[in-house]
Amino acid sequence: MAAMSISMNQARKAPHQGFCYPNVSHVSPAYAYQYKHDTESEAEFTERLLAELEAEFSRVGSEKVVAFIAETVSGATLGCVAAPKGYYKGVRALCDKSGILLFLDEIMCGVGRTGTYFAFEQEGIVPDIVTIAKGLGGGYAAITGVLVHEKVVDVLRQGSQVFNNGHTYQAHPISCAAALAVQRIVQRDRLIARCAEMGQVLERRLRDGGRHSRPGGCSGASSL
Fold it and tell me: Could you tell me the keywords of this UniProt record (predicted)?
């Protein structure tokens, strides 16, 4: 229910209407292709999104907000969409200003898939909580991970001294061994650098492919 509450995938949320948490709010997607005004530059779009987020923090009351949660590069719902430049750096600053945790979902885009180990590295920030999965085990074994900043761990140590959580197959030795083997191969074969190199090749070829129309007939270049 928590996952469906923060999700904006309407088709998946439909069966759970009435069960989602009421203490969750959403802001506009950082999706330039659909939401940037034709008269806006990328920087102006970023500024508008951040102003909306700051206004939402104020509306809810920043002292009531535990975390801002976002998928660094959107996956199934939008199809590998990156936020406009400077967006996450601005979000980090707003969260720091109000004492709000920054929680980034890198299940899809983390562990080297964007040409850096974490996608958020390209914004020069460090989140407080990060989830990773797909690239961690390379599809050879089911495994996920939650990475937590020491400032969060320190608070837990000063309080309950435990993260009250549990799953039947957590710390499964086969999954952990597979993930370790995958990460060693990623490092040995310089696969993250290779991803960055081939990403530039793909970008050039896509941009050379021309322009197409947005839904509704408005002309616009595709974003990468």
Answer: Pyridoxal phosphate
Pairing of strands 81-82, 73-74: antiparallel
For residue 137, give the DSSP letter.
H
CB 143 within 8 A of CB 133: yes
Answer for the pair 69, 6: CB distance below 8 angstroms, yes or no.
Answer: yes
pLDDT at position 13 is: 86
Q: Is 35 exposed, middle or buried (0-12, 13-18, 19+ CB in 10 A)?
A: middle
The pLDDT score that the predictor gives to residue 219 is: 33
Reply yes or no on whether the pLDDT at 222 is more than 60.
no
Contact 12, 4 (CB under 8 A): yes
Distance from C-alpha of 68 to C-alpha of 72, rounded to nearest angstrom:
12
Angle at 210 (CA atoms; ends 209, 211), nearest 5 degrees: 135
Q: Helix 87-98 and helix 42-60: axis angle, to 10°?
A: 20
pLDDT band, residue 127 (cuts 50/70/90): very high
Compute the distance between CA of residue 73 and CA of residue 82 in angstroms, rounded to an integer.
5
Regarding pTM above 0.85, the answer is yes
